């Protein structure tokens, strides 16, 4: 049997692998491999930690499934070595001893996610799918690291191969009797894809930046979540930190958090909509808040609001076109003795005149300009 | 800082700190509460430090940034201790003069002292300023004596002695009994007996138990919790630890609203300092009792101040209330017994333990003991935070402490209890303020907001303001609250825009009754109070809006127009400059006039016109009155 597998693995090595499964239980590994292959992934199996690491080194897969408890080198150790060996590989922990502790422990040392045995095939495929997309991101980011040495004409990426493959598939579909209309749709789609890739070749530099930026964002989100030990219950605190860091809640970060904390995206959006502190649109660099508390209402905050609104040229709830200021009303700033009162960033102002407002706004804009210049 | 391992250690440390403090002759205490910061308190404190450095008198004079002293109207406040001199509204340019006269010599700077309008005399000492004189400051007193970021300051004024007393000399039952005997009622709103809550949590099965500080001060117009947490965070922490000991809780939360970053920061510093000193964490003061506290930030939702909603927010979920067939003291955070009290309630605990229940019961009325902090704001001369014994007359708070209504206007009403409270008219000014009297008058204590309104405040507009607020903040879970508020707002908007109908008042009353009976949580049950109480006491104002299309206070913009009295106008042009829409124009005879078709009725010209000229006037707008309609439910469906 072992010899048999050796042959299989060697054959597989002729092509790059998607997934390597490292576990000492044969029934389990075979089950995984079959599920994965049925799901369209190229998978191979290793029966122990050391063997697994060797396989990873030669085959450089996107995702590695690692069992926590194995004779010899255990899962935690494999994870540790993996991160040195192939940092772009995305490790997923599999455990039959599913305690929260071991899962948390593995997340801390860099596991992307964990599966508790036994699991449904769908669950496995879904987790691997997410892992693969991360691995693609990581690999791309790695490729663009040495930006200076980049040629003006980069080697064409395999997107065109993809296109060709797509056309093959179409041909096949045609022979299978797919309707013309559907075929046309597919063709249109591929054409747009092709155009997009051609464009992106021209904008490769921009894309590099975008990928690096996204990577950077995700790392920042990870740092925030790490501060709360990746606990589900800390979601509101995490979102507050994200809001503070990015000044709004970008969609890709919310998706990332959803995966990391294993909370449905729907739930995250419910919370983001419920609480006033969160913004699902980019906000201005400076926050301008006019208090609408009772004391301020009684002392004429509507005049103040109008003054601020005309000074900035925006209505409450809006951000100006330069993304400089966001104007809002808030229920109570909690310094009612100063009513009517407003807050610009961290500073409070008691019923400022139009002249004073203009001065403050101008100086903030100027600061920004200087910072940009510098 | 070394760990304090016993009661003796604490006493020794206090002695040492006091000895060091006495080496300085004078402290210049600058209020660095949020109010005074807005007036430039930080720059003032830095200027003092620089000047003291420059003169080389740092060995005998020190600057201290303290929390809020309460008299926010007149900030920034500078106290010279121990002399007790209080300067109001001091600016950076006054720094050198203050040091010259009041630090180096024993003189006073008259112009920075409080001017008593009645006697025409200047008042030098803080305790003699009428604003402070008629108060009974127990919780707030230490705010002026300590730097909230320094635990030693708190220990110097006797801080943590109540904790030491409780942990080393009292059993948890005894602590609980003391609080029960003191009849301490929750300061957050409803006034539920804290001792009973504690007892329920203590007896409820389940481990661990939690204690929670509710610092989600959402009521617009109230900010005493903020000032306590910013100005004296250790007192709340001490109260919380004592409570945890009595209840048998091992973990605690301080739930701070996101709008209070300074309060959060100071609470965080306090927790860290207490932990380093062995007053928090494992084996507190060597007693074997262990307790930990975490800060949880709110994310801006009024309803999250409700106990069950706050607890779901702590669990990281949407902060919606749940029906409370089972109290949160039995099943709260993660289904465990959780005792939640407001900031001010916890702050009372150390005093009760130190001085005893009897002392505490010596203040207040039959069923409301101790003091209460009110935020006295709105149309009143001395706005700020006032701490008074329960049972004080409303009139004394507003006129003796608050100094009456500005600009000689007439008092109309005072709103208490936030959005769940009601208005109290002039006829009830001699009411003795406590939990039950306020409820009897159709309002409530709430968290202690006290918003004074004068003749220029429209009562229908006030009701509309609160209903608008609540309609926005209702979580929408139960129908009576969500829909009731929406319909109420529609009716009130109609009335304030001159389209009110006969029968609207009765319809509002009917809706109130229904919402009160059928809503899920206190937000909905009490949401109609602002409407009910304004109708009860100011029905005539509603009727004037509906029947005559007239706003007696001249507030509702649809019912007034602004005009310029040509005989009074002195053509200074202030109104023209103030107008943001260009509706003020120079007329032929060089005075100004308002173009009604451009005017948006913001009132900017009215405010801009100098008081002694007063040429801009409000005139009732001609409103087409709707034909009288009958008021059956089906026809008035909104």
Which key terms come to mind for this protein?
heterodimer, A: 374 residues, alpha/beta, Rossmann fold, Glutaredoxin, 5-stranded parallel beta sheet, 15 helices, 9 strands, 57% helix, 11% strand, B: 638 residues, Ubiquitin-like (UB roll), 5-stranded mixed beta sheet, 24 helices, 14% strand, globular
Could you report the average pLDDT of chain B, rounded to the nearest whole number?
A: 90
- Could you give a short account of the major beta sheet of chain B? 5 strands, mixed
Give the number of DSSP strands of chain B: 19
By CATH, the architecture of the largest domain in chain B is named 3-Layer(aba) Sandwich
N-to-C span of chain A? 67 Å
Number of domains of chain B: 5
Full CATH superfamily name of the largest domain in chain B: NADH-ubiquinone oxidoreductase 51kDa subunit
Q: Helices and strands of chain A: which structural class?
A: alpha/beta
The value of Rg of chain B in angstroms is 27 Å
- β-strand percent of chain A reads 5-15%
Largest sheet of chain A: 5 strands, parallel
The CATH class of the largest domain in chain B is identified as Alpha Beta
Structural class of chain B: alpha/beta
Kindly report the name of the CATH homologous superfamily of one domain in chain A: Response regulator
Uncertain stretches of chain B = 627-638
* Number of DSSP E strands of chain A: 9
At CATH level 2, the architecture of one domain in chain A is 3-Layer(aba) Sandwich
Strand content of chain B: 5-15%
Distance between the termini of chain B: 66 Å
């Amino acid at each position: 049997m072992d010899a048999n597998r050796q042959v299989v693995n060697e054959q597989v090595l002729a092509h790059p692998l998607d997934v390597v499964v490292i576990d000492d239980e044969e029934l389990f590994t075979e089950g995984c491999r079959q599920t994965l292959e049925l799901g369209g992934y190229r998978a191979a199996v290793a029966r122990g930690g050391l063997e697994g690491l060797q396989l990873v080194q030669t085959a450089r897969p996107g995702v590695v499934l690692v069992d926590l408890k194995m004779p010899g080198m255990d899962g935690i150790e494999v994870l540790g070595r993996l991160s040195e060996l192939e940092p772009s590989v995305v490790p997923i922990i599999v455990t039959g001893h599913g305690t929260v502790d071991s899962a948390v422990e593995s997340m801390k040392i860099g596991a992307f996610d964990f599966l508790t045995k036994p699991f449904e095939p769908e669950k496995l495929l879904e987790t691997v799918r997410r892992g693969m997309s991360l691995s693609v991101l990581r690999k791309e980011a790695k490729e663009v690291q040495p930006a200076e040495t980049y040629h003006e004409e980069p080697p064409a990426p395999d997107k065109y191969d993809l296109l060709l493959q797509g056309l093959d598939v179409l041909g096949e579909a045609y022979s299978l009797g797919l309707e013309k209309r559907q075929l046309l749709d597919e063709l249109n789609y591929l054409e747009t894809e092709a155009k997009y890739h051609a464009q992106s070749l021209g904008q490769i530099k921009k894309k590099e930046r975008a990928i690096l930026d996204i990577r950077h964002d995700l790392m920042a989100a990870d740092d925030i979540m790490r501060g709360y030990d990746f606990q589900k219950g800390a979601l509101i605190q995490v979102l507050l930190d994200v809001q503070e860091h990015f000044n709004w809640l970008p969609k890709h970060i919310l998706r990332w958090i959803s995966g990391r904390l294993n909370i449905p995206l729907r739930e995250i959006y419910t919370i983001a909509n419920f609480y006033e502190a969160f913004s699902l649109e980019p906000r201005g660099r400076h926050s301008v808040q006019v208090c609408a508390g009772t004391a301020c209402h009684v002392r004429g905050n509507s005049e103040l609001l109008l003054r601020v609104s005309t000074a900035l040229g925006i209505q409450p709830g809006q951000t100006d076109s330069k993304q400089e200021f966001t104007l809002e009303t808030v229920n109570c700033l909690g310094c009612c003795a100063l009513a009517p009162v407003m807050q610009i960033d961290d500073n409070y102002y008691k019923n400022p005149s139009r002249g004073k407002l203009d001065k403050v706004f101008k100086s903030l804009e100027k600061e920004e300009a200087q910072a940009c210049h510098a | 800082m070394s760990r304090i391992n016993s009661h003796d250690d604490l006493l020794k440390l206090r002695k040492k700190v006091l000895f060091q403090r006495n080496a300085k002759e004078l402290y210049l205490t600058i209020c660095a509460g949020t109010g005074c910061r807005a007036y430039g308190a930080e720059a003032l404190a830095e200027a003092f430090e620089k000047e003291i450095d420059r003169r080389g008198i740092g060995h005998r004079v020190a600057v201290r940034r303290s929390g809020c002293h309460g008299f926010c109207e007149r900030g920034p406040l500078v106290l010279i201790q121990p002399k007790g001199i209080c300067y109001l509204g001091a600016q950076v340019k006054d720094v050198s003069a203050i040091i010259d006269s009041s630090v180096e010599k024993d003189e006073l700077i008259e112009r920075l002292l409080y001017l008593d309008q009645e006697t025409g005399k200047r008042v030098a000492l803080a305790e003699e300023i009428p604003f402070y004189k008629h108060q009974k400051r127990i919780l707030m007193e230490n705010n002026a004596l300590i730097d909230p970021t320094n635990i030693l300051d708190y220990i110097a004024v006797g801080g943590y002695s109540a904790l030491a007393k409780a942990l080393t000399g009292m059993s948890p039952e005894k602590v609980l009994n003391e609080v029960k005997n003191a009849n301490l009622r929750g300061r957050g709103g409803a006034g539920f007996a804290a001792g009973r809550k504690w007892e329920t949590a203590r007896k409820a099965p389940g481990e661990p138990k939690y204690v929670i500080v509710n610092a989600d001060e959402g009521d617009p117009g109230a900010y005493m919790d903020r000032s306590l947490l910013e100005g004296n965070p250790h007192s709340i922490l001490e109260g919380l630890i004592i409570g945890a000991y009595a209840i048998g809780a091992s973990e605690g939360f301080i739930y701070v609203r996101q709008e209070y970053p300074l309060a959060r920061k100071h609470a965080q510093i306090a927790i860290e300092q207490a932990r380093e000193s062995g007053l928090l964490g494992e084996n507190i003061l060597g007693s074997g009792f262990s307790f930990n506290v975490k800060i949880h930030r709110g994310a801006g939702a009024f309803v999250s101040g409700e106990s069950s909603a706050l607890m779901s927010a702590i669990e990281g979920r949407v902060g919606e209330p749940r029906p409370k067939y089972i109290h949160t003291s039995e099943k709260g955070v993660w289904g465990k017994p959780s005792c939640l009290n407001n900031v001010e309630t916890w702050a009372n605990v150390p005093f009760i333990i130190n001085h005893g229940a009897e002392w505490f019961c010596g203040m207040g009325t039959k069923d409301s003991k101790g003091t209460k902090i009110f935020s006295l704001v709105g149309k009143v001369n001395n706005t700020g935070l006032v701490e008074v014994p329960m049972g004080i007359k409303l009139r004394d708070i507003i006129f003796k402490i608050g100094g009456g209504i500005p600009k000689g206007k007439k008092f109309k009403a005072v709103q208490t209890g936030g959005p769940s409270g009601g208005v109290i008219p002039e006829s009830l000014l001699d009411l003795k303020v406590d939990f039950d009297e306020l409820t009897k008058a159709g309002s409530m204590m709430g968290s202690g907001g006290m918003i004074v309104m004068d003749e220029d405040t429209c009562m229908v507009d006030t009701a509309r303001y609160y209903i608008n607020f609540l309609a926005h903040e209702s979580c929408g879970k139960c129908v009576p609250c969500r829909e009731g508020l929406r319909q109420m707002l529609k009716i009130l908007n109609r009335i304030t825009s001159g389209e009110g109908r006969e029968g609207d008042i009765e319809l509002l009353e009917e809706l109130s009754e229904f919402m009160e009976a059928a809503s899920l949580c206190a937000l909905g049950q009490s949401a109609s109070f602002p409407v009910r109480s304004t109708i009860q006491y100011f029905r005539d104002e509603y009727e004037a809006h509906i029947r005559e299309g007239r706003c007696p206070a001249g507030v509702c913009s649809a019912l007034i127009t602004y005009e310029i009295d040509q005989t009074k106008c002195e053509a200074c042009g202030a109104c023209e400059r103030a107008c943001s829409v260009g509706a003020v124009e120079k007329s032929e005879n060089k005075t100004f006039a308002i173009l009604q078709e451009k005017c948006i009725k913001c009132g900017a010209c009215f405010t801009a016109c100098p008081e002694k000229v007063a040429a801009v006037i409000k005139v009732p707008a001609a409103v087409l009155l709707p034909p009288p309609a009958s008021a059956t439910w089906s026809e008035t469906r909104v």
